[in-house]
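Weekly structure sync, notes
Attendees: PL (lead), two postdocs, one rotation student
Agenda item 3: pending single-chain targets
PL asked that the sequence for the first pending target be pasted directly into the notes so everyone works from the same version. It is reproduced below exactly as submitted, 265 residues in total.
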Amino acid sequence: MMKFTKMQGLGNDYIYVYSKKEPENPDELSIKLSDRHFGIGSDGMIWILPSKIADFKMRIFNADGSEAMMCGNGIRCVGKYVYDKGLTKKTKITVETLSGIKTLDLKLERGKVDSVSVNMGKADAGLVNRIEVCNKDVEYIPVSVGNPHAVVFVDDIKKAEITTVGPAMEHSDRFPDGVNVEFVQVLSDSRLRMRVWERGSGITMACGTGSCATVMAAVSIGLCRCNTDVAVELDGGTLIINIAPDNTVTMTGPARISFEGEVNI
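Predicted structure, written out during the meeting:
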């Protein structure tokens, strides 16, 4: 039997397990338990582990078993998990990820973590590019936030062809390691509406790194400004993203526990 905690950040939900040693067959376990009909149901699994270089370490496995480098919504929930369960008394912690060490500021409400601000490091936006997929010429901006993103600006998010263009871009030869694809409608210079096709998971309710990439892309072409809080409206709620002049990204948003239990593995 394995104890788990189901958590979500704006509907981007993961199965969380704290372990003192590295997991065995975590890819197979993520595929099995992420299934929404025969498993617990989630966008993947996140393991919280000891770290030699930070306060904690996290490993993220998507619903298809692939290991992700970073997850913005997921890491906020890590912060809530370790504080609320008494694994740390600090309200500023560091977490080791495949994208480097991230710093989390935990914001408390009645002794529990309510929201988390994450220093996501520096984002890097490339030049506007084009790709031919689904018999369409799609314009996108490549952005790295420690993991790869392709940001596509659209006139109307309701008409965005997420389920066709998204997977076509994810599996394109242009992106040999896959890519997260964000579809974005600009509402104002401080409000963006975004929907996402996540690499390895498909459509999800929210994507933290995708929100960071979205604002970085908007700043790079003058649609948003640096040092300004930008609200990114997602299917599951809203994240606040701020891009510093040196392209350092700060993400702020909620973290919630859905339920806890034990599962036979």
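Discussion points:
- The helical segments are 26-34, 72-84, 162-170, 208-220.
- The first strand starts at residue 2 and ends at 9.
Action: rotation student to compare against the earlier draft before next sync.
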